[in-house]
Amino acid sequence: MKLNLDIKVASSKEWLAAVLNDFDTFLQDHADCERKASAMAMSFVAKYPDRKEIIPELIETALEELEHFQEVYAIMESRHITLPSGMAKDPYLQALLPFCRSDRDNRFLDRLLIASIAETRGAERFRLIAENLKDETLARFYKKLWTSEAKHGHIFIKMALHYFAEDQVYPRLEELLVKESEIIGQLEIRPALH
Q: Domain tally for the chain?
């Protein structure tokens, strides 16, 4: 059973440069992403209360993402950066979500796999940031987040495998990873996580 996944396309140098050249704007987006990730984990609890076996792990994930938001917000405060007045839609997830199938079980599977892919992309990007930041404290923080996001990517695959057979999970994951690689290449380069 394979719990990790390999994204098909690496993030571009142009994306990394955009983030490093406007890190304050990136922090605002990052804070929003952590709030959304926490809400997404809790939305699984709300939409699938019958999937009792994964609820404790979903709650734990939601709390961890909220803790990350708190940590990012503390960094923002230290740099005198305010939260944006509203949370913008994430173009990356907005492009991925239409690939979810509509019936309840397949939608559940697809949402878990998309969550895994998004967390894995986040881990890849946090690793790039950690390896390229000059500020050692921030670099350590992003290294910690990189390992956490990678773990979350594994958690959502494990949840999928709890309810679906490997021959359902892995082929569908592969299809969604191909779509993700197309999407990541078409997104506007901006100082944002996605």
A: 1
